[in-house]
Structures are given as C-alpha cells and as structure tokens.
Amino acid sequence: MKKLNILCSFALSLGGFSQTQLFIPDTLVGPNYNLTMHKDSVQFFPSGNRSKTYAYNLYKYLGPTLIFNKGSNVNITVNNQIGDTTTVHWHGIHLPSKWDGGPHTPILPSASWNPQFTVMDNAATYWYHPHMHKKTALQAIKGAAGLIIVRDPIESALVLPRKYGVDDFPLIVQCQQYSSSNQALPLGMQDSTILVNGARANYGYTVVANMPAQVVRMRILNASGERSFNFGFSGNKQFYQIASDGGLLNTPNLTTRIRLAPGERAEILLNLTGMNGQTLYLMSHASELPMGVQGGPTMPMPSWATPMDSPLNGVDFNILKINVVPQTTNPVTTIPSTLTTNVPYTIGQANVTRTIRFTADSAMVMDGPFYFNDSTFDMMRVDYQIPINNIEVWKLVNETMVAHPFHIHDVQFFVIDRNGNPPGPEEKGRKDVVLVPPGDSLMFITKFEDFTDSVIPYMYHCHILMHEDDGMMGQFMVRSNLTGLSETKLNNSVVSIFPNPTKDIINVNIEGSGEAPVSLSIYNVLGKLVYLEKNVKHKVVINSSTWLSGVYIISLQQNESIISRKIIIE
Ligand code: C2O
Ligand code: CU
Ligand code: CU
Fold first, then answer.
1. Ligand 1 atom closest to Cα of residue 433
2. What is the pTM of this model?
3. How far apart are the CA of 406 and the centre of ligand 1, in A?
C-alpha cells in the first residue's frame, strides 16, 4: 500500500489553475489477477464535498490495466467491497457468457467471483466495467472502470511503440455530470467535467503528459456515459489510426480526426520526431460533430424537455496537454506500412439478417427511454436464439433524433454498409461498438463461434449508459443444438419459435418482416383454435401456462404466404 495514491498529488496550483501529470495506472500481468472493487472518494472540486467514487485495488478512481496475452489462460478474482451488488464485464473480450460479467451474473456485496478463460482476442485495447442492470451508468461513472491490453504475435512482430507509459499511453477519457454537492450523476445531458485517467482536465485544470520526440502510441477509450468526442490535435497535426475496438487495421489510416462514441476505442500513432521542446494538445473538435450526436451542437429543444445544453456541446476544447521531451533510447521513428490482414465475412455467407430499429415513444424524445424494435429490456426475455457458427448480418436502423452507439457482447464485427456505402477506413477493422446517428442505417456482419449456453445470455445494448439502464438493451443466446429452436422463413422474414418443447411461454420472433402484419394462430390436435393474434409485427410472447400438455400447431400467415410448425407443451 505504498505508492499508488497518485491522483491529484502532482497537482500544483498556479494562480487558481492547476496542472496534473497524466496518471498511468499500473499494469497487472497474469495468469492470476486480483481485483477488489471498493468505495472511496476524491476531492475533484476545490470546495465542497469529496465526490464518492468506486475503484479497484489501491486506487481511488478507476483500476489497474490488465495485460492479457492471446492464447493464455487467465484466472481473475473479483472481490466486491462496494457495499452494493455489481458485476464486472470484460468489454470486447470473446469468452463464455457465464464469465462475461453481464447482468445475469451478479456479485453480491462482500462476495467474490472467479472467471477463468482463455484469451482468444487479437491485440487491441479493451476495458472492464460494471454491468448491473439499472446501475451500470452510476457504477461506471463513479470510477469502476479500467483498461485491458491484449498482446498477440502479429502485433508483437511489428515495430510499434509498446513501452507502457513511456511511448505507449493509456488514455481513459470521460465527461461527467456532477450534482451541486459534487456527486457523479448518471445523467449526461449537461455533462461538462472532463477527466483524463481520473484527473480533471478542463475549467482551470490541465492534465499534462510528457511524450518523447519520436513516434508515440495512444490507446484512447471513451468511457463517458453519453458524450462522443471528435479527437484531433492542435494545429490539425496528422496522426495514424492503427487499431479500432478489437484489433489492428490492415494499414495505418492517416487522418486528422477520430470520432469515438461511448465504449469505442482507437489506437493512434503520433509522430513527434523533431519536436523536442514543443507543446501541443489532444482536443475534441466537437464543433464538427453533427447535431444529434451527443457532444455536437445543442439541438433546439422543446420547452418541456431536459435541456442538452452542456457548455462543451459544439465547441472545440483541449483534453490533454503534451510536452514533447527528449527521445528515449531505441526510439520508434517510423510508421509501419501494413499491420495485419482482416478478412471480413461476406454478405453471401450470412445465414440470416436481423433488423434492429432504434425507437422511442415519439420522434421528439431526446433523453429516453429508447428501445430496440419498440420493446424495452426484459431480463426474462431472450430476444434471439442464435445457432452456433451462424454468420449473421445485423441491420441497425436509427429512427430516433439522437445518435446511439450500439454494442454487442461475445463477438467483434465488421461494418459492411453505412447508408448504402462501404465503411470509411476508420471503420474497416474489428469493432464491438458502432455509432449510428439519427436516420442512419448500418449493417455489420459477424460469426457467433466457440461458446454456447442455454442459461446465461449475452447482451447487446446502446453504450450510452443511461439509455442502456433505461431499457435500450436486448439479449441473445448462442445454442449448440436446435431442439429448443425452430427457425424458418416466411416470405423474407425469419421466424423463430422457442423454446420447444415449452411449458409456460412461447416466444415467436419475426425478423426482417417488412411492414406487412403477420397473423398468428395456434391449434390443438383436434384442430380447435386456441390462440389468435392478427397483427404481429416483430415478436409476441404467448403465455401457455394454462394450456393442456400436448402437441399444438402454430400457423403464421403474411399476405399469401403461410407456414405451420409443431410445438410441444409439456
Ligand atoms: Cu461496455 Cu455491455 O458493455
Ligand atoms: Cu461489452
Ligand atoms: Cu442510446
């Protein structure tokens, strides 16, 4: 317990302004990792209360950086000392659902949880954070988050900066909203306090990093509850994006901007060669964000709505001051011309296309609740039963007025289409979060491999944490055998009926059904109609608990097309 309470201890006051050296969380290397989540507090504000926080191990805010090596086994013990139920989710990591840390695997106060798995992911920057339903936003913004760096042989063979904290810098950027008593609020409409690795970075506070005059790497995570950043440097200095959420890009992408929504990560290379003694800033060029993306220009709001009027919206602001210092020994001074070879699946390989519309009660809703396909999250409802090894296209259609970063667990995906166009170079790599602005329609493709479970589902949700807690979340199960699932086609729609056999509940999901309503009827063995619903749009959950056991026929009709399937009630 000696050296780690560094936050704020470097702060020196210069006439009301204070500068803090960039805090670099320590790394933990495997195979055994111990994380104790506890409550703490930080004096973020010059007067008034300390802000209550959650953190891991010896920190007062955030947690250590976990280093994973692809192919190795990890054994993590999470000890919950926050006095409230929580979970820890390994965001972006491909692992069995029982170790994923979603809302179905709570860790009770004072209890421990011991996930063990093999690292299968490509080298990139991932992260961990709580995922308790309805509490994710509050627990995460109180500080219970940290980074995961995965290393693999392909990345290790490249000439890239990877001296952690020396030429390879972790940057966890958050924008937070605090109450008048200095407590983090799980709201985001008026967020204005920027934190970089847990230290205040605006309104009189500056976080400074000394970076050597050579090629440096930054691993940027947007861990905000709501705000998107449009990262770039002062003077529009160019940089190279080398990785997206779940892996290296094929080639470095030379650019001056990278937009990151909540949950997204990017790794970049910045060439500071020859700049010893100079100063520059990592900034958010938020004036260039479109309206509707949180952080962009404030939208005109109806008088009854919560104003989205953070003073940071639509303006450019500094996030990190960079002082360029002398080169290290053996500096990296070149940018590799190629990085890896990603081979996306092609649309022709897909077994199914699922359409997920982002919806709200009305087109005027700005602050939620938001839904997927008009349904709010239900812990008891599994939205999709996915056969193992399915290659699937998910089509995301945003019918609301605000942008939503869509995140899916278990897999990394490839964006294949944005509004009818191929993705830009920044979105060509492996991803697990993608921002869908209002009116946009986006398709990604992925494969559901390796892990099946018939009890614990994986989640997909909006990574605006307040939207997620408000019900903009769904869940899917990857299944090894299809006895519980019959999937079939009606016109161009995929119909799944599950479980089968069943007892109390029959789920009927119709995906990609277009707008024509489906009429659903269920007959018993004697041919007697026991259930009729004429106007099914996307899904229906039928309560069969009072029905006699036996075989029933479900019949679905859309326009002229009819299908019938047998279901057994036990
Ligand atoms: Cu980063 Cu399901 O979350
Ligand atoms: Cu996740
Ligand atoms: Cu959202």
1. 1
2. 0.85
3. 10
Determine, yes or no, domain membership for 351.
yes
Sites in the chain below the pLDDT cut of 50? 1-15, 483
- Are 492 and 421 part of one and the same domain? no
Task: Please report how many Cα atoms fall inside a 13 Å half-sphere around the Cα of residue 495, on the Cβ side.
Answer: 23
The verdict on the CB of residue 89 being under 6 Å from ligand 1 is yes
Considering only CA atoms, which residue is closest to atom 3 of ligand 1?
Answer: 91
Q: What is the residue-wise DSSP string for 47-76?
A: SSPPEEEEEETT-SSB-PEEEEETT-EEEE
> What's the angle, vertex CA 436, arms to CA 388 and CA 469, rounded to 5?
75
Is the C-beta atom of 265 inside 6 A of ligand 1? Answer: no
Q: What is the extent of the structural domain holding 553?
A: 486-569
Q: What is the DSSP letter of 99?
A: G
Q: Three-state SS string across 418-431, please? A: ECCECCCHHHCCCE
What CATH number corresponds to the domain at position 540?
A: 2.60.40.1930
What does the pLDDT look like over 431-462, one tens digit per residue? Answer: 999 999 999 999 999 999 999 998 999 999 99
Are 524 and 409 in a shared domain? no
Peptide bond connecting 501 to the previous residue in cis, omega within 30 degrees of 0:
yes
In whole angstroms, what is the distance from residue 298 CA to residue 300 CA?
Answer: 7
Domain total for the chain? Answer: 2
DSSP string covering 426-459, please? GGSS-BSEEEE-TT-EEEEEEE--S---SSS-EE
Name every residue whose Cβ is closer than 8 Å to that of residue 93 and which is 6 or more positions away in sequence: 68, 100, 117, 119, 121, 126, 148, 150
* Residue 159: exposure state from Cβ atoms within 10 A (0-12, 13-18, ≥19): exposed
* pLDDT at position 235: 97
Query: What is the rounded CA–CA span in Å between residue 298 and residue 312?
Result: 9
Among 153, 197, 175, residue whose Cα is nearest residue 22: 197
What is the DSSP-derived secondary structure letter of residue 359? Answer: E
436-440: list long-range contacts, CB under 8 Å, 24+ apart. Answer: 436/358, 436/396, 436/398, 436/403, 436/404, 436/405, 436/406, 437/290, 437/292, 437/293, 437/398, 437/403, 438/292, 438/398, 438/400, 438/401, 438/402, 438/403, 439/398, 440/396, 440/397, 440/398
Amino acid identity for residue 263 in this structure: G
**Do 472 and 451 share a structural domain?**
yes
Q: Walk across the sheet containing 486-490 and list its strands.
A: 486-490, 493-498, 505-511, 539-543
Q: What is the CATH number of the domain that holds 392?
A: 2.60.40.420
> Does any ligand 1 atom lie closer than 6 A to the CB of residue 467?
no
Q: What is the number of the ligand 1 atom nearest to the C-alpha of 92?
A: 1
Ligand 1 contacts CB of residue 411 (under 6 A): no
Cα(523)–Cα(269) distance, rounded to whole angstroms? 63
**Ligand approaching nearest to the C-alpha of 102:** 1
Read off the pLDDT of residues 392-432 as tens digits, 9 standing for 90 and up: 999 999 999 999 999 999 999 999 999 999 999 999 999 99
Q: Are residues 497 and 552 in the same domain?
A: yes
Work out which ligand 1 atom sits closest to the CA atom of 131: 2
Ligand 1 atom at minimum distance from 263 CA: 1
